[in-house]
């Protein structure tokens, strides 16, 4: 038996979340069984736990789109008992039982060895949010962005993706501007590396198709009017890496920035990203993200605390990253 957060669907369609004990025989199919040490609560996890969005595709479901732990048993030659592994995406926590449980069984193709210099807690302090942030940074660099290009904007700056994106970009030498709805956290954002703090209200309303050229690039986890205004405010040849939809799925924009300024909108998918890109991202995270940044940006909770935290995260009341320690009761 092992502890897990289990989501079920009531007759009226609402999602019910409860901490429960499950038998190992109930685990889904997969070549590798993992003793989970740590998981996290991401925005998508909070949507699943609260039922505010149809993230979960089948019930019952153990949420948690990422986890880190130790291989308990494996029928795949690439992994053996005792190996330290992590997982992000691939529908885990949505269509396949995820990481908010003390055990998981998954496909070997989904697992990444934990890089040297990281352990389970540090890996989940980075989590899917930090991994996504690195994919965004890699996309900006692939499109030729350098510190000499000009300032880079990070929206949703106090969230998991935003906070780690700020830390990564600033340590690469970029001038980073941070957009947030929590201006009281300005000092924290400056400690991460932001040099200018912008009220998200200035970007969140409908704007002109073309606006003053302000940024050479951007990391956007907000979408909707915010992303449209960011595109309209990029310098000639600028790139925005879009990875989220906190404000909405829509993009009420025009083609003007793309055909008059050569702007690039680079979509970032962390769920199905090819393994080579995943490995490169995690190797860079291990090398480039200082431990002190993770410590200052991370809160640790137990599995029993997840249900209460989820609505707070959706309401924008959680700063940075949240690690779920599966050994904590």
Main beta sheet:
7 strands, mixed
Named CATH topology of the largest domain = Quinone Oxidoreductase, Chain A, domain 1
Taken together, the total number of domains comes to: 2
Strand content: 25-35%
What top-tier CATH class of the largest domain fits best? Alpha Beta
Separate helix tally? 9
User: How would you describe the shape?
Assistant: globular
Radius of gyration: 20 Å
Fourth CATH level, the homologous superfamily of the largest domain: Medium-chain alcohol dehydrogenases, catalytic domain
- Give the rounded overall mean pLDDT: 95
Number of strands: 15
Task: Flag low-confidence runs.
Answer: none
CATH architectural grouping of the largest domain: Alpha-Beta Complex
Measured between the Cα atoms of the first and last residue, the distance is: 15 Å
> Helical residue percent?
25-40%
Classification by helices and strands: alpha/beta
H/E element sequence: EEEHEEEEHEHEHEEHEHEHHEHE
Task: Itemize the secondary structure elements and their pairings.
Layout: E1 2-9, E2 15-22, E3 32-40, H1 43-50, E4 66-74, E5 84-88, E6 103-106, E7 112-113, H2 120-142, E8 152-154, H3 160-171, E9 176-180, H4 186-192, E10 194-199, E11 215-220, H5 224-232, E12 234-242, H6 256-260, E13 264-267, H7 275-288, H8 291-296, E14 298-302, H9 306-314, E15 321-325
Parallel strand pairs: 8-9, 8-11, 9-10, 11-12, 12-13, 14-15
Antiparallel strand pairs: 1-2, 3-4, 3-6, 3-15, 4-5, 5-7
Helix pairs in contact: 1-9, 2-3, 2-7
